[in-house]
Here is the input.
Amino acid sequence: MQVVVIKIGTTSLINSEYSSLNLSALAGLAESVRTLKDNGCHVILISSGAVGVGCQRLGLEKKPKDLSKRQALAAVGQVHLMRFYEDLFSAVGLTCSQVLLTLDNLSDKQQYTNAVNTFQELLEYGVVPVVNENDTVAIEQLKIGDNDTLSAQVATLVHADWLFLLTDVDALYTANPSVDPKAEPIRVVEDVQSLQVKTETPGDTDAGSEWGTGGMGTKLSAANMATAGGTKMVICQADPDVVPQVVLERKEIGTLFLPATEPVVGGQRWVLSNPVRGTVQVSAEALEELREDGTVSAAHIDGIEGNFESGEAVAFVDESGKEIGKALCQASYKDLAGLLEKQNEVLEEVVITEKSNVCLLPSVGGSDNSSASEADEWHDKGAKAMETSH
Here is the structure.
């Protein structure tokens, strides 16, 4: 049974012209989920919109920056949003549930395991989980931050076959098509980290729209996580009908990110889903250490960034800045920075990771015949599909 995760953003859920929910989008989503369920798929919905809907309900024209105000608006919007999901899914004969997650839930191994078990039981009952971050209780320093990231974490958690990010563009482009007339669509991505694309809009920092929180940069980060976990990811126009067309009819629409040929397994999946709190740049020697025994000594660290505590996840990057993996660091940023200032033989004895808490990113696409074949098909038919989708 295929597991399909669908993420729909705030801008797709809110009709800005009428300051109300986009009921046609919600109804179309419910019908598409019904089609997938009728064809033997499990479906999980990642729904943004709680804060945005709260703003609309209270007549606010802009989303406030103050955290407590946003949390209050999330409390207003979430119940309103779920009421419509319940009504619309019931109308097509489906039962939905609400699942609210926080960073603590995903960072703590026991809570992560509980979440895995809960999703498994919900899917076995035939329920459609509707997932969002629990904005009302999350503090600023411990927020997942955007639902692109959350959707990739959930896809990894449930071993999803597909992850769809429904957005306001029809594909990933080489640059922002709204400002660069030379931008070209990318039909298939075999290695996320080899991409050379511009995700920023002049004067912006890729922070999404007025109501949303995720831009194209967050979607590429989500792709990196999801594909490492063995999930195929698609970025496409926010038309729910696209999802069953791709999953059931194998139509080539949007941009396909191929999964890793040897995805991470076991406890590494938990490490993979941990939100990154900092970056550790390592030398070539450290990379060899990681590959051989999963450890890194402080002597082979070239630089650190962020503000992480002991036990929090950091991204390992090589000398070129390319991410090579994640790990739970045994030292805080402050302690590690102090060690690195000493630059003496003590550093060789300081190990900052344990093998069980390291997840090296696998190679993505290309080396596997099935992935290569899928890429070829997407390349061959992609142009035609993109034309018919407009």
